[in-house]
Amino acid sequence: MKFTVIHPATYMVYYLILILFAFFFNDPYYLASFLICIILLITFQGINSEFKNIIKFYIPMAFLIIILNPLVSHIGVTKIYIIGSYFITLEALVYGILMSLSLLIILLLFASYNNTVSYQEMLYILSKRFPNISIIIIMALRFIPLLNYRLSEVNKVFRLNHESSAKNNETKINKIKDTAQMLAVVVSWSLEESMLAAKSMKGRGYGITERTNYLSFKFRKIDYYFISIIIISAVVCITGLLQGHGRINIYPQLQFSFSENIFNIFYFSFLILLLPLVYLEFKEKLIWH
User: Fold this and answer.
1) Residues contacting 5, CB < 8 A, separation 6+
2) Residue 141: pLDDT band by 50, 70, 90 thresholds?
3) How many C-beta neighbours within 10 Å does residue 54 have?
């Protein structure tokens, strides 16, 4: 239970702005501040297991991005010779690193969003005007964790059934066959349940009339304060972005210096945009403990 209740629409607007800014900003100082704040937010939200799963998925993906981008793209003027006349460019390497950081931030934002806004709250916001779109979005957000859960359940059953035979015939071909069979079971299970869910929704008249909700939210003073902070800080950040603050030029030549002074109104507005939810989660921790 949370003591500070904020309207889910406020959360949705806030996370949407953060995800868009993760695409737009590529300055290392901004990305590092962004990443630190999101890690603090996830720590206060208590979703360390999701963070570990994201890191396991992210590390090989980041290595692929960082390695493949310089090998495939030779755009840039700063050449780094590796073997003989073969070279990579510093610009392509930096672009791959910054792109992988943005990917990590976006993944962590989605994990935090799933913990903050429930499926019922999303239906409350979207289902009245966009019933079909809302159910598609919710099913898409729910799809990957649901498949992970079902795959773990099927894996437990396979381990119990094949425990004796696995000790005797532990070959790579058998492992591949077992994995393929598990995936087939999970996919057929998901398809069957989706058909049942669709029939149940059709039988209950989903989308025919205006949908009612057992949840009820009203905008309060804290929502207006939150939205005001978001809008003002976002407008200042966008103004700075248009003037070149928060984004660096990578191609054709890298233009960045670590000695550059970034402490200006645009950077502080960016921090103000990141900190409200961190503050609220930290406040909840203090109240509970």
Assistant:
1) 217, 220
2) low
3) 17
